[in-house]
Write a structure and sequence with these properties.
Length: 133
């Protein structure tokens, strides 16, 4: 099964209260499932990696073997692709965890979009943060 999974993570303050979200859709655009959760205090970049991990978990739970991940964090996308070095020591384990999670799929890709093109995932994470505050 092929899925598109939009992911987003963010914090209010950097670091600050943080949340993650993932929205899984069929290639037709039909939303199959969505998840969001707060993750405590974290930086924006940590939250973005944790969102990718949530997205991988969501895709796996739906039985996906081919996944296109869509994220609005250029940093995370380029680091996962191996195009940019992970300079922040605390992000290295998260990148490793993400790559391990992604390797579980038959095939996967990840691409960057502007925040406005990741609207539902952004809304979910902000709703989670609003409820937590």
């Amino acid at each position: 099964m092929r899925l598109i999974v939009n992911v987003d993570g963010g914090s209010r303050g950097n670091p600050g209260p943080a949340a993650v979200a993932a929205v899984a859709t069929a290639p037709s655009g039909e939303v199959l499932d969505e998840r969001s959760e707060t993750i405590g205090k974290a930086t924006n970049n940590v939250a973005e990696y944790r969102a990718l991990l949530l997205g991988a978990e969501l895709a796996r739970s739906l039985g996906a073997d081919q996944v296109e991940f869509v994220a609005d964090s250029k940093l995370i996308v380029e680091q996962v692709k191996g195009n940019w070095k992970v300079k922040q020591e605390h992000l290295r384990p998260l990148r490793s965890q993400a790559l391990e999670a992604l390797d579980g799929f038959g095939s996967w890709t990840i691409r960057h979009v502007k925040r406005g093109e990741n609207e539902r995932a952004d809304q979910l994470l902000n709703d989670a943060l609003d409820e937590a505050v």
